[in-house]
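User: quick one
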Amino acid sequence: MPKDIFFKNLENITKPLLFIGSDDEETDKLLIPEIINRLNKKNCIIANITERNYKQIIPHVIKHEHYAVLKSPIDINLAKELNILAIEMGLPHDKIIMNTDIGGLGYGYEYGFSIMEKIKLEKDDKFLNFPIFTDASTEALKTKEAKSNDFTNSWGSLDKRAKMIELCACTGVISAGANIVVVHYPENIKYLKGIA
Amino acid sequence: MEMTGLQIFKYLPAAKKTEHTNCKQCGCPTCMAFALKLAKQNIEIEKCPYIKEELKNLYFQNIKHPQNTVKIGSLTIGGENVLYRHEKTFINRTVLAICLDCNIPDFDNEIKRISDFEIKGVNEILKIDLIILKNSQKIDINNLKDKISIEIISFEDYKNFEINTFTDNDFYETKDYLITTRTRAIVDKDEACSKPVCVWLKSENLYELTTHASFYICKYANMLVFETFEEALFSTILRLRQNIYTNPQKPLQVESDLYEFNSPDRNSIIFLTTNFALTFFAVANELEGVNIPSYLIVIPADGMSVLTAWSAEKFTANIVSKTIDKLKIREKINTRKIIIPGLLAHIIPELQQAVSDFEFIVGTNEASEIREFIKNINR
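Assistant: Done. Structure below.
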């Protein structure tokens, strides 16, 4: 869809918007500011901003009054550091959202899970007391269990399994305290609302 | 939660320098020594004749296990002592049980289906833990046990276990019950909350079951009973359970071995890395996805990642050399080049010296760069 039509159609959307960049840090240095500057909206959520590209992206986020999802590699100290760096650039506290990253379900998922629980216990730390955004579902759906039919009968049908993998990955992080969760299968939303 | 040596010491004679300070009647040279031993439960509290009643009460209260352990055949549930796995670890995995009615028409097929169910987790085969039989009066359970490879009990037997069963009629009620019970047990050492909790799931919707079961596994259910069986559901939640119940202090390792991807032949490329599960999976996923045949040599590095292993001297030229010998690489493969993790480029000279008939090549720093790397070396 040509860029102009895309941005024009966005204006018709009244729900809050979340933008996730390319997840290639170099590309996002250019891509995300470009998107922000064409957006005719405020209060959108801009993801994923990292230690390698925050300097290029944060000024645009601040100027247009958006929220910033600051992503760090499953490390509480690096998460805190990035939050502080963004604040020092002028990002308001109430515009910070954290993405502490996570492995796919079955592939070290527990590391990401535990770091969320740890952060949620640090309510008195003003540099960690921010909402948590997670794309646990995206990571889980990248695993071969969610994509391939090359499994025994004990694994059930791929179609059901992929949806359940997303539900399971999302539910776990919700139980750990995640506040914003990406969902790929629209039919899964009602089940997640039932536990959130 | 646990009393430290210092906390115990405050109640002993030496703390206030009263009579009997360091009297040695307990067999320890000082009150502090006794306090430290007592904190680790390496000495009996009665050995000190001058211990205050106050301390005795506190101490016995403190060493009490917050949650009871219950054995169901070969299975163990309960015995948990933390609210968050990162505090130490969760101990006994949530037992997953299927409740089956013996009167259903295809009972024989169903029970076989459940018993045969098995998937490969990390380093282990995962199966259903337990079958609970309803209306089993006419069934010869012992006969069944000989044929079925998992634990079986009757519903009547189940009711005799010292377990709190909570029926999952409403998610928020169940969640609240699980969290309140576990918190009171651990934080208050409330005896009324010391029995393990089993949630009896009632939903007939598989997706709703998935969310409920996933939540309860993460939040304190010692056991879950399902009235429905579905392979896709269990192959998913068993893997969640394996992740959550992994001991944070003991990172998962894979076997040191020669792994194959995309049907390699004697001349395919060879990669090498450590046996930390996450490192292995990261590399393995890349190699599998690239559609080029390859081998991966995994060295025994105590489950450490590349840099950690190197700094702990678990990734040395000597160990690489021994692994190549042990795995009989030279007999199985003609290729005489091995691609090592880019982060360890600086050890290539010593590798060359230790293993002179192979050439060592600097690979990528990140697994995600492997795809591009392989394309380039093929040119």
